[in-house]
Hints:
Elements: H1 7-31, H2 35-43, H3 48-70
Helix pairs in contact: 1-3
Amino acid sequence: MWFGGGEAGKVVFIALAAFQPALINTWQGVSGIPRSYRELADVLTFGWFDFAWIIAIPGALPQISRACIRR
């Protein structure tokens, strides 16, 4: 009832309910990236965005998709 009974309230409620599992699985996926990939990013002098876009997101996708499949 915080967001009303309309469509916007339903969308906000679902987004809030899905946020925590997605965040936790993303965190676990990124922490599961092998140390050698992180060292490679250091050697190639990747910035934060490059590391996230090229290594972290693709490396975490299998773990993130598990959160979506469980639901």
